[in-house]
Amino acid sequence: MFDSGMKKNDIFEKFEKLAERYHGVATLGTQPFGMVFDEILSPTRARVGSREVILAGTNNYLGLTFSEACTTAAKAAIDHQGTATTGSRLANGTFREHLELETALKAYFNAASAIVFTTGYQANLAAISALVGRGDHLLIDADSHACIYDGCRLSDAETIRFRHNSPEDLAKRLSRLPDDGARLIVVEGLYSMLGDVAPLAEFVDVASEHGAFLYVDEAHSVGCYGERGRGVAQAQGVLDKVDFLSGTFSKSFASLGGFCVSRHESFEYTRLVSRPYLFTASGSPANIAAARAALATIAGSDELGRRLWDRANQLHSGLRAAGFEPASAPGPIIALPRADETTAVREWNALLEAGVYVNLAVPPATPQAKSLLRLSVSAAHSESEIDQILEVFNALSDLVS
Amino acid sequence: MCNVQDSHVFENVSKILKAHAHADILITPDVRISADLEIDSVEIFDIVMEIEDIYDISFPVEVASSIDTVRDLVETIGQLTNV
Ligand SMILES: Cc1ncc(COP(=O)(O)O)c(C=O)c1O
């Protein structure tokens, strides 16, 4: 039935170049894009084969994954509500705990509306695609996360990119737009790859000057910035001016799920039209319970945040002393741009062999086609664990050669 | 339809593409930006930003993603600057 000429219709042919690159990376050591942890020992330690490694690439910023509060709440939720919700909230009903989490989020952010989604990815997909449609305009930061791009694609609005973290460039692009249609600006609080922070106060001004709404994804920054971890907008004094703030439970909240809160009560209607909310199951009871417990911990004290910043400053200054140039100011994400992909992969392997796991990030997932070693700091890192990480970085050039 | 190859826009675009291309081939209107010049999707977006600044226009992301050949790019610039 298939003659050899069919090869050109091979559905997998397009993966050939990618496969070559994927397998090529593995020839330099461990496959970085198929990393397996054989046992998770704590928020900061895991076993890989026979080796114990310090985890410095988890996004477990507050280290709550093994906290008494989160694990107890998750176990109790399984005992009392079972392992799954088995359906979407609109079609199959809402578990009371989802509503309680939404109420707690409203109180935490002083918002008029809060909606919980199954993941952070879906939160952006759901909110962005529901808020704007044909005839409207989306203006997004050029370095936006993939789920923001995907949310834009799912909406029927025209999407315009502006230069990363540039309120001036945004203003220029806004002034080129026709007068009709709604305008939604989408930025992040803390950028996940380079760890740089957005000038949100300036974006708020540009938004109001041009009659636009402002949407901020604080996936990485809630829990880490602002009073009681309310995020970068709160830290910059503009939380009450941001129209929509989204986030995730998968990082500081030690769970799985996402949310979007708004100062506009009408945001509630998103539930009725948003496909990534309507046509997928709601978060599992254990995930909702863990997120709720984490929120209570975060809202209750700045202690973990302080610990996180102490460790972040220690790691950042130690890396600089070791001759590395972090891409951004100290913070929970510390990215080290490397000369090229091969250098980054070699160093990544040497670090792993010396017992330190970091993230390897390469184009096209990185801004400006950079190859990065990306570290994330956790409040659960001890001072001596950061010292051990730094010891390995100090020896890195020897380890590689 | 104007002659793409002789246009001033084509000349400008060729210069920009040449600086970003990973494959060393002659740039003609029918050259495919990603397949032939080996410029990945993220780089194409950056090139589009450069072009937007030169011509003071905005390319919707949807339009930028559908650009395949150099001709597509030149014609899109023509459309956006004529409105
Ligand atoms: C900026 C940003 N937004 C959203 C997400 C998605 O979050 P989640 O892991 O909950 O889907 C991520 C995480 O990868 C992110 O970096």
From TrEMBL, chain A:
Annotated Pfam families: Aminotran_1_2 (PF00155)
Keyword Transferase: yes
UniProt GO molecular function: pyridoxal phosphate binding; transferase activity
Sequence ranges assigned to domain Aminotransferase class I/classII large in this UniProt record: 52-392
Domain of life: Bacteria
InterPro entries per UniProt: Aminotrans_II_pyridoxalP_BS (IPR001917), Aminotransferase_I/II_large (IPR004839), AON_synthase_class-II (IPR050087), PyrdxlP-dep_Trfase (IPR015424), PyrdxlP-dep_Trfase_major (IPR015421), PyrdxlP-dep_Trfase_small (IPR015422)
Transmembrane feature ranges: none
Alphabetized UniProt keyword annotations: Pyridoxal phosphate, Transferase
Necessary cofactors: pyridoxal 5'-phosphate
SUPFAM superfamilies according to UniProt: PLP-dependent transferases
Keyword Transferase: yes
Protein family according to the UniProt entry: Belongs to the class-II pyridoxal-phosphate-dependent aminotransferase family.
Protein known as: Putative serine C-palmitoyltransferase
Protein source organism: Hyphomonas johnsonii MHS-2
UniProtKB/TrEMBL annotation, chain B:
Cited Pfam families: PP-binding
Domain Carrier positions: 7-81
Name of the protein in its database record: Acyl carrier protein
InterPro entries linked: ACP-like_sf (IPR036736), PP-bd_ACP (IPR009081)
Alphabetical list of SUPFAM superfamilies matching this protein: ACP-like
